[in-house]
Hints:
Blueprint: E1 4-6, E2 12-14, H1 26-30, E3 34-35, E4 42-43, H2 45-50, H3 65-73, E5 89-91, H4 92-96, H5 100-113, E6 115-119, H6 125-140, H7 143-146, E7 158-160, E8 175-182, H8 199-225, H9 232-236, E9 242-249, E10 261-264, E11 270-275, E12 282-286, E13 289-292, E14 300-304, H10 306-312, E15 322-324, E16 332-339, E17 346-347, E18 366-367, H11 368-376, H12 392-397
Parallel strand pairs: 5-6
Antiparallel strand pairs: 1-2, 3-4, 6-14, 7-8, 8-9, 9-16, 10-15, 11-14, 11-16, 12-13, 12-15, 17-18
Amino acid sequence: xxxxxxxxxxxxxxxxxxxxxxxxxxxxxxxxxxxxxxxxxxxxxxxxxxxxxxxxxxxxxxxxxxxxxxxxxxxxxxxxxxxxxxxxxxxxxxxxxxxxxxxxxxxxxxxxxxxxxxxxxxxxxxxxxxxxxxxxxxxxxxxxxxxxxxxxxxxxxxxxxxxxxxxxxxxxxxxxxxxxxxxxxxxxxxxxxxxxxxxxxxxxxxxxxxxxxxxxxxxxxxxxxxxxxxxxxxxxxxxxxxxxxxxxxxxxxxxxxxxxxxxxxxxxxxxxxxxxxxxxxxxxxxxxxxxxxxxxxxxxxxxxxxxxxxxxxxxxxxxxxxxxxxxxxxxxxxxxxxxxxxxxxxxxxxxxxxxxxxxxxxxxxxxxxxxxxxxxxxxxxxxxxxxxxxxxxxxxxx
Length: 398
């Protein structure tokens, strides 16, 4: 999808060709690719890869894939059943026409998978390509230009590592740019790149279109599935803040020794992902094993976030762990857009979704802003964020 892009100096390059090696020295950790910011020092993976050094620093080395597989195999899971599944594919055009079969597919996807792929979503393929190309153009810029947009801890925006909570934790193999999109007064344009020249225009256009997709899902099908009137779930979000994170995953000669993004669930209501068409990197936890999500051109990936699982559906619909893997031959990029309730919204399981047989609430009432602050204060790790809202009995079983 990325193809050939033109950046500031007028040269044309392929995003996948800028990194022909992997590995570093400790010197690169101490000198090259560093950003001074209110968060712990940001070590740009892209810059370290560009430096053409020879080994992976210890802080990036994760448990091996073999160790993870052995842990999975220790569970009584039929791994043959998850060797080649694909997440459900949902036709948004059919959903918009209240197609009963498509609604049933969506309900099953939210119960069993927590993820689904959306086709016929209405966003032109040409716009998807433009926003990916201009995003790639930003990451192609020299490091000195990119660090002008360094991540700001108070604003939660900018270029850097938004989930780095300490100088000791293991690091993910990714660089990112985080921006707040909606409401407009939350934006800080000083963090919005001016190069490539069409970056802002393309991101603005894409963000407007992907918001329409989120609104259709929340106001329509998801509201109906949760026993609400049309628009009910969307109204609970009030102004529905929207943020985007551009993720860049450099190549790695030993991809099994690092992780693009650590396993986690999202703290949003729903997340909509645009990813490269030709590289598989996203994996989701399903039936006790990691399942790769194979891209379909011009599709979007939607996943249920913690808010819908833990609060409004009382665990009926699943916020599923997922992770990003790296690639030894080609860099990968994605745009993740997060939709969430207003920060001062108090959220709790909907009464009509509680089991009429008298089963207890799995989650307590919580102010979303408190949950958000708790989640952002530490490294993303599995589904541990859900503990903040779990009832006492449920937390003991977690």
